[in-house]
Amino acid sequence: MVGSSPASLNMFKPEKTTDKTKNYVLMVESAKAFMEGETDMIALLANLSALIKLYVDDLNWAGFYILKGDELVLGPFQGLPACTRIPLGKGVCGSAAIEGKTIIVKDVHEFPGHIACDAASQSELVIPFFKGGLVNGVIDLDSPTKGRFTELEAEYLGKVAELLSAFLDGS
Ligand code: SME
Predict the structure, then answer these.
(1) Taking each helix axis from N to C terminus, what angle separates 151-168 and 20-35, rounded to the nearest 10 degrees?
(2) Which atom of ligand 1 is nearest to the CA of 63?
(3) Of 18, 99, 102, 150, which is most buried with the most CB atoms under 10 A?
(4) What is the pLDDT of residues 54-81, one digit of tens each?
């Protein structure tokens, strides 16, 4: 289905390789395809969370928090039920949102104020996305492996966040 519009109701046929970077490229291409012809944010984020979980190995949670007022509110995700609301500035998600910057946490136990939604989580990657230049929410990935996330994951999830920001800006 990569490259064609999901609005056509075609079945999504996952292409996955043994090459990590190639898989991340496929994730970004698929994310782009899912944005074409779609206008509903929840439908899009639901599919993006599934794509991230599919293409990024060794995750126990992948999903979205949307900024509403001074709180991040849980959006579509894959994984165990999670904290519903995170105050801006709290935890890894709230810190990434208030700073408007990506945060890679190699060991969540060493991040002051880390919010443990799933006891399995050992490392975390949080990437903000924007609407009209302002933070609109974050993409949150958790792994059961310490040191799971590197600049490579930050780069490719950053591309997903850029696409999402462009989607939110209507471009
Ligand atoms: N660990 C996050 C909370 C969200 S869960 O990981 C899904 C944090 O510290 O902000």
Answers:
(1) 10
(2) 7
(3) 102
(4) 999 999 999 999 999 999 999 999 999 9
Distance of CA 34 to the CA centre of its chain: 15
Give the number of residues written for the chain. 171
Contacts for 39 with CB less than 8 Å, ≥ 6 apart: none
Token pair in block for residue 69: 């007022």
Two structure tokens written together for 65: 């928090």
- End-to-end C-alpha distance for the chain, whole angstroms: 22
Of 7, 11, 10, 9, nearest to 37 (Cα)? 7
Are the CB atoms for 9 and 39 separated by under 8 Å?
no
Find all residues with CB under 8 Å of 58, minimum gap 6, and list them.
Answer: 143, 144, 145, 148
Query: What are residue 138's phi and psi, to 5 degrees?
Result: -135, 155
pLDDT (tens digit per residue) in 158-170: 999 999 999 999 9
Question: How many angstroms separate the Cα of 8 from the Cα of each of 2, 31, 37, 113?
Answer: 12, 15, 9, 44
Interior CA angle at 23 toward 147 and 56, to 5°?
40
Nearest CA to ligand 1 atom 5: 117
